[in-house]
Amino acid sequence: METVSATAANYVAQMNMLPMLNEANFKLWKENVEIVLGCMDLDNALRTEKPTSTQENPNTDKIEKWERSNRMCLMIMKLSVPEAFRASIVETTDAKLFMKELEQYFTRNEKAEIGQTLSKLINMRYKGKGNIREYIMEMSNLLEN
Fold first, then answer.
1. In the 3-class helix/strand/coil scheme, how is 58-110 assigned residue by residue?
2. Measured torsion, CA atoms of residues 46, 43, 108, 19, in degrees rounded to the nearest 10
3. pTM for the complete prediction?
4. CA neighbours within 13 Å on the CB side: how many for 24?
5. SS3 128
6. Which residue has the higher pLDDT, 126 or 97?
7. Which of 44, 53, 71, 80 has the most beta carbons within 10 angstroms of its beta carbon?
8. How far is residue 99's CA from residue 32's CA, in Å, rounded to a whole number?
9. CA–CA dist 94, 97 (Å, integer)
10. How far is the first Cα of the chain from the last one, in angstroms, to the nearest whole number?
């Protein structure tokens, strides 16, 4: 009994280490999710396709292990994804597909942001008046925002 509660406490501690997903941290979030799920030995559903069953080889144990991994992956990922983002992602019961949908969502947003920043940088002009240092600082602040 103590082993089960220790394992549950370990899971909770690992999940609390996950950052909440936001507009700026997808790569960090994904890396942390993969590390946490790997340490918990729950990343099977993200690494492999769902095993199939045949009459000759029912694969019952592999299928059950994969389904548990998939279910746990989804729960853990959704725990650290705000409802606002989940609403814009297609609802799925496949952890790998959920991760792929999130990745596509944030890649699109990142590309749009990069385009807007580049456009601002290209259109900025030093007007020859004032301090060049302030102009450079203004340009670098664009990249931070």
1. CCHHHHHHHHHHHHHHHHHHHHCCCHHHHHCCCCCCCHHHHHHHHHHHHHHHH
2. 170
3. 0.67
4. 3
5. coil
6. 97
7. 44
8. 13
9. 5
10. 50
Q: At residue 114, what is the residue type?
A: I
**How far apart are alpha carbons 114 and 33 in whole angstroms?**
25
Which is nearest to 74 in space by CA: 42, 106, 107? 42
pLDDT at residue 95 in the model: 95
Q: Quote the CA–CA distance of 100 and 73 in Å, as a whole number.
A: 13
Dist. CA 36–CA 39, nearest whole Å: 5
Residue 39 structure tokens: 């340490």
User: What does the mean pLDDT of the chain come to?
Assistant: 83
As a whole number of angstroms, the distance between CA 137 and CA 32 comes to 33
> CA–CA separation, 103 vs 75, rounded Å?
17
Q: Which two tokens mark 41?
A: 């030995």
Query: What gap in Å lies between CA 64 and CA 102, rounded to an integer?
Result: 26
Q: At 56, phi and psi to the nearest 5?
A: -75, -35
**Looking at residue 145, what DSSP letter applies?**
-
